[in-house]
Write a structure and sequence with these properties.
4 helices, five-stranded mixed sheet, globular, alpha/beta, 5 strands, Nucleotidyltransferase, domain 5
Length: 127
């Protein structure tokens, strides 16, 4: 099992990305624009993190529903891409309650606490 985990959550104002090395160490947190400006941005980002760490990543993309309903071009791009040699990509339904709670939990750096993505990674990737 890969020890490199990446969680991605899309929203109307931002896309959150959280990368962890195992269950304890956060290695990357980012709040990006809600829509990527290039069609292969998601694939490139995931490949870059995996290459940087020298390890295959297990990626979880939080979507609006099990059927992949998501208006973001990020979701449309990922719908045909379930990974390759550098990462695997799984879909999970979004949990609105966790997102609302996480927005209130801000860290000192202004990026956010990412509690929703941390919980998603720990519950989905470790299973």
């Amino acid at each position: 099992m890969s020890n490199l985990w990446i969680g991605i959550s899309t929203g109307p104002r931002a896309t959150g990305v959280l990368a962890m090395q195992g269950a304890e160490e956060t290695i990357l947190k980012a709040r990006l624009l809600p829509e990527p400006s290039q069609p292969r941005a998601l694939t490139t980002l995931l490949q870059a993190v995996a290459m940087w760490q020298g390890e295959r990543a297990r990626v979880v993309l939080s979507v609006a529903d099990w059927d992949g309903a998501c208006d973001s071009s990020l979701c449309r791009e990922a719908f045909t891409d379930f990974g390759g040699p550098l990462y695997s990509l799984d879909w999970v339904p979004a949990c609105g309650h966790a997102r609302r709670r996480a927005r209130r939990e801000r860290d000192l750096h202004g990026v956010g606490a990412f509690a929703d993505l941390r919980n998603l990674l720990l519950s989905e990737v470790v299973r």
